[in-house]
Amino acid sequence: MRRVCFRSYGGPEVLKTEDAQRPEPGEGELLVEVGAVGVTYPVVRLTRRPDVALPHVPGGDVVGRVVAAGPGLAERVGERVAALAFDGAYAELAVVPAMFAFPVPDAVDDAGAVGLVRGGQVALGALRAGAVHAGESVVVTGAAGGVGHLAVQLARELGAARVVAAVGDRAKAGFVRDLGADEAVTYDEEWGAPADVVVDGVGGDVQAAALRALAPLGRLVAYSGAGRPVDVNELRAHGRSVVGFAMRPFVAGRPEAYARQREELWDLYARERLIVGVHRTLPLEEAAEAHRIIERRENRGRVLLRP
Question: pTM surpassing 0.90?
């Protein structure tokens, strides 16, 4: 089979296509013939991290058909699933944990499945971690990205009265407005009236601006990006709070909530209440270009690879 691997650290240029033996699923695992894989910013950053063991085949959000299964899972062969693969996803065949692989309804296409299995869950989970109430105001940073563009739409579904989409480039303003944002701002502009909830996927200076943008009793939910030290006494003085959200502890610690959200997302997508934006679909051999798009923050929605 073909796969994309990196054997040294660096930028997108270290990604190389190579031939490899067919992997075999072990206990608790499924082998999926990959139809599409979503490229994510956390995975893109791995090529530059010296703590990643080499060689490494990047992971990602996968949709495809189960072609083999580990012991006791034979009944899952033939299922069309969306799955979270923590490595080995940039390939024609990927081994995925069975507990993170979920049947996809016929009404959900590959783009929808890839977009919602993780990105939709992060967006909805982060908004719920921020306890968004009907009538409140929500700011979403990274609003044109794979998670952010879904969070803009889901904030409205949860009853937000005002949704502000914060982006790094004014050229993305039309995209986020078309998704339902009331306002589109860049990170170096004023963000308007203080917000009840800010969902941040950028970190750094943007995260600091997000804290300043909170109203009294406001909540910041950080789901990605490098954090900054937070003055707890400053939070206390304004009754603000900061919450972290990540998929792995959510899936492992709240499996029932994850399952409910999955069905909710499938339903919203099938009823065309939720759009999964696809910026570009590339063949597996062009994984380096997919990483460049993500690193340059050019994408409006998801970037997909198709073996």
Answer: yes
